[in-house]
């Protein structure tokens, strides 16, 4: 999406690429935004790929991406993602530092992905701020920039600056942007398209999950048990936590109960089947854990404002 397509409510994103950038990191940054547009059926996000000199920029795996020249960037935007990887120290020139200082006034948030925090720090933008970087460089980064509070978090938001480590953390950061910009349920729906958080390790009963991880793990089980939904106490037991702890995690992360989120997940699967299959409403109801079509139709109308038949027509 190289055209700067903007409509009311659209967030504008610029991805500044450098030679040897991580293609995995780029995909994990852009694809959740693309998925958000797909689910919403609206251009919630639009993006452009830029480089300092324009032309083709080649990733560390040899994939070329055509970019526009930095000087052709629009005067303002919502997010500027910096995406260096290998050879990042050689990129931290005075020219880039000047460009980033100027960009700070043109973009709502500057984001350093992978080793992007190094470029932000060299430009003097992380003094007195909290940041993280790819964990291979964490110690060197902390020693090189003692005025920055360097932490081992997977991603960090510090007002108008954000940083994250490698490719998987880029997706987590983008999902957090979507969650904050729209809603926790919408971000969960985007994450589900990538099976994000679906790899569960529940063999260790002494493992303590953060609230966010507990919610994503519970949601993964919910998606696996749509046709025959689990009771909430059974769901909590499968995660080795009490029902109260699970409910508190959902209240904090989703502002909804586990039961309400479970219902929304089932109804979104019903919507997918309405749109993409010719299954009868009764069959869809059965596949989504409803005892009869009438019960699902009532819930569907409450969730989406139309009945399944009206939606399909």
Automatic annotation (TrEMBL):
Domain of life assignment: Bacteria
Keywords from the named record: Transcription, Transcription regulation
SMART domains in the record: HTH_ARAC
Gene3D superfamilies: 3.40.50.880, Homeodomain-like
GO molecular function annotations of the record: DNA-binding transcription factor activity; sequence-specific DNA binding
HTH araC/xylS-type domain span: 216-313
UniProt protein name: AraC family transcriptional regulator with amidase-like domain
Biological classification of the source: Bacteria, Pseudomonadati, Pseudomonadota, Alphaproteobacteria, Hyphomicrobiales
């Amino acid at each position: 999406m190289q055209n700067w397509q903007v409509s009311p409510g659209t967030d504008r994103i610029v991805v500044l690429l450098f030679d040897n950038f991580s293609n995995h990191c780029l995909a994990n940054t852009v694809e959740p935004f693309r998925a958000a547009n797909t689910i919403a059926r609206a251009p919630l996000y639009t993006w452009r790929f830029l480089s300092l000199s324009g032309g083709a920029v080649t990733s560390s795996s040899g994939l070329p991406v055509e970019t526009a020249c930095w000087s052709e960037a629009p005067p303002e935007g919502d997010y500027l993602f910096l995406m260096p990887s290998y050879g990042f120290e050689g990129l931290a020139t005075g020219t880039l530092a000047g460009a980033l200082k100027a960009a700070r006034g043109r973009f709502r948030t500057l984001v350093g992905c992978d080793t992007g925090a190094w470029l932000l720090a060299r430009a003097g933008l992380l003094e007195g701020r909290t940041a993280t970087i790819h964990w291979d460089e964490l110690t060197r980064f902390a020693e090189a920039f003692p005025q920055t509070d360097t932490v081992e978090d997977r991603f960090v938001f510090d007002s108008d600056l954000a940083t994250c480590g490698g490719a998987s953390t880029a997706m987590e950061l983008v999902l957090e942007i979507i969650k904050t910009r729209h809603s926790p349920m919408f971000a969960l729906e985007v994450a589900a398209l990538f099976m994000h958080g679906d790899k569960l390790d529940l063999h260790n009963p002494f493992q303590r999950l953060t609230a966010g991880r507990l919610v994503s793990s519970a949601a993964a089980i919910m998606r696996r048990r749509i046709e025959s939904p689990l009771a909430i106490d059974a769901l909590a037991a499968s995660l080795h936590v009490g029902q109260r702890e699970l409910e508190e995690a959902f209240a904090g992360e989703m502002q909804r109960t586990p039961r309400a989120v479970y219902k929304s997940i089932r109804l979104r699967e019903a919507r997918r089947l309405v749109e993409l299959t010719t299954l009868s409403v009764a069959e869809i109801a059965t596949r989504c854990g409803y005892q009869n079509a009438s019960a699902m139709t009532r819930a569907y109308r409450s969730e989406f404002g139309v009945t399944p038949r009206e939606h399909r027509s």
